[in-house]
Amino acid sequence: MKDILERLEGARAQARLGGGERRIRAQHERGKLTARERIALLLDEGSFEEFDMYVQHRCADFGMQDNKIPGDGVITGYGTINGRAVFVFSKDFTVFGGSLSEAHAQKMIKIQDMALKMRAPIIGLFDAGGARIQEGVAALAGYGEVFARNVKASGVIPQISVIMGPCAGGDVYSPAMTDFIFMVRDTSYMFVTGPDVVKTVTNETVTSEELGGASVHTTKSSVADGAFDNDVEAMLQIRRLVDFLPANNIDGPPEWESFDEPERLEHSLDTLVPDNPNKPYDMKELILKVVDEGDFLEIQESYAKNIITGFARIEGRTVGIVANQPMVLAGVLDSDASRKAARFVRFCDAFSIPLVTFVDVPGFLPGTAQEYGGLIKHGAKLLFAFTQATVPMVTVITRKAYGGAYVVMASKHIGGDVNYAWPSAQIAVMGAKGAVEIIFRQDADDPDKLAARTKEYEDRFMSPFAAAERGYIDEVIMPHSTRRRIAKALAMLRSKEVDEPWRKHDNLPL
Ligand code: HXC
């Protein structure tokens, strides 16, 4: 028996070495942790239970029959994050560059199937070169099966991808179908084809960083939802994200003990909105002052900054925050902002996370660049997403709510459950100046008349009361009581239930 146990220990030790000391050293020299070190940081200490550590590939081509490494480039298993179950796979770059063989795919598929059966989140740590080139179509088939499971699990369990090395081919397409993608700055890249292929096909010379670094994907392409400075920070922030997320689409958001009084008043909010309606203020200040303990995890922080999306808590329960940001482009809705917010709203709705929307929006961004870029379709995505959402929705208009953007931003008309306005709110088709120039064009040469008309329009519409008179706003609230009002509304809305007619699925304008 002693021999058997020793043999087992030996086999385990060999598997734990992955691609060997030299490649582990190279991994560290590049500022990256190994696949196992990452898992150790991500999960609660000692909670990781590994599967399939002896699995090897079955490829016999290109000399591969003599080149087998137990584990075959991916470490899989389950564990806990702050006591809650998660499934995890972590690509081992030291083994064939983390590339995906048929056997490697079977390991991933096992974990994907288990996560779905257990209705628990799945986290993928990527550091891999795509399909194992020596395996050809067998590797492609493996990816197909992984992709199919990504789609099947979408909207049932949260799927999180962290890009922690150079990732290509299938190792970017599978993440693309998950709910969140995060990257590590300077050490991670995502591209469908790398710089060498780009050079051959298009004759473009581009570095990995320029083609698919964290800065590209968080600011330009919006493929990634955020970036972290190093592997350690990445793992800690993913733990923080998981704390906000429900385990699945049935359980509802997790409840953590809150030390922040729901009745807390925040008097500084009474002076947040400047007297001059064209002066910006920081919407993040409002968010941080309203949510539990000022804890706000922003999603897509560096992209389309004119809208803010992220997770926070009220009375210890997760809420999704969507807010216009007057500091950037006056908080206008453009194509990028609409797409960003629409995807966030749909995630929250799929996973029963209530939505809190703060509105200060002067409208949709005019211009050929926007219209040619499909603003109509992209704006419609956000309209569609809010309208379709059946989760509790609380909306607070702080200042401008003009035109179509007023309707889109979780207004009463498309399903807002509780809609509040601050006394500084202006709910109108457009700003007073623009409105008067159109409807009183005949007075264009008479500045006195124009001024009087503008004043008349301002008195009528540049307040929340025209909307409140019709019940479109449930109450005009004091800014300092915003947290208390939201907390009460969300508590009332906990039992919200909406029956939808059967359909196969909707036809969201993509
Ligand atoms: C087999 C691979 C591999 C792959 C890397 N390796 N990618 N082995 N199949 N796809 C191996 C290398 O041979 C090397 O082995 C080790 O991993 C490390 O790779 P390096 O190239 O030395 O590392 P680096 O310079 O950091 O470059 C990383 C990389 C590059 C950018 C990922 O290796 C690369 O471009 N790989 C190919 C990417 C690709 O085209 N994949 C196929 C995509 S098609 P040794 O023994 O020297 O350590 C695909 C289809 C899926 O995925 C379907 C999508 C819809």
Automatic annotation (TrEMBL):
Domain CoA carboxyltransferase C-terminal stretches: 261-504
GO function terms (MF aspect): acetyl-CoA carboxylase activity; propionyl-CoA carboxylase activity
Domain called CoA carboxyltransferase N-terminal: residue spans: 1-257
Source species, domain of life: Bacteria
InterPro entries: AccD/PCCB (IPR051047), AcCoA_carboxyl_beta (IPR034733), ClpP/crotonase-like_dom_sf (IPR029045), COA_CT_C (IPR011763), COA_CT_N (IPR011762)
Gene Ontology BP term (one): carbon fixation
GO cellular component, one term: acetyl-CoA carboxylase complex
Pfam families according to UniProt: Carboxyl_trans
PROSITE patterns recorded: COA_CT_CTER, COA_CT_NTER
PANTHER family in the cross-refs: PROPIONYL-COA CARBOXYLASE BETA CHAIN, PROPIONYL-COA CARBOXYLASE BETA CHAIN, MITOCHONDRIAL
Family statement: Belongs to the AccD/PCCB family.
Name under which the protein is recorded: Propionyl-CoA carboxylase beta chain
Organism of this sequence: Salinarimonas ramus
